[in-house]
Design goal:
By secondary structure, this protein is of the alpha+beta class. It contains four helices and four strands.
Length: 117
């Protein structure tokens, strides 16, 4: 479905962007796995999840974890990345394009995961 969606968007709009789908049960698992869930009520726009097109290799995940500045604010769990932007989303270079570049896979970012209910 993801490849089909991506090709439909590319053909119809001349855009090559990730088209990522998840079943409701997968979204529930993603929400339950959020290591920063306790902060969502206080900082909903600072707690984000990047849903990836695929699970990444251990080498790519380790490369991301080696960046000391984000070690405590970023967790790769399966095919998604939970991020706590702590102070500001708008002043950091470490947004979804950074994470997807280091991990080598497309993704889409969403805020305040529990609000998806």
């Amino acid at each position: 479905m993801t490849r089909l969606g991506r090709s439909v968007i590319e053909a119809g709009f001349s855009l090559d962007v990730p088209a990522i789908t998840r079943r409701p049960a997968e979204i529930e698992e993603l929400i339950a796995a959020n290591p920063f869930a306790a902060y969502v009520a206080h900082r909903p726009h600072m707690i984000r999840v990047i849903i990836l097109e695929a699970v990444q290799s251990r080498d790519r995940v380790d490369r991301l974890a080696a960046v000391e500045a984000i070690r405590d604010t970023c967790r790769v769990i399966g095919d998604h990345v939970h991020v706590d932007y702590v102070r500001s989303y708008h002043t950091t270079r470490r947004t979804a394009p950074h994470f997807t570049s280091v991990l080598g896979v497309g993704g889409t970012e969403r805020t305040g995961v529990p609000s998806w209910h």
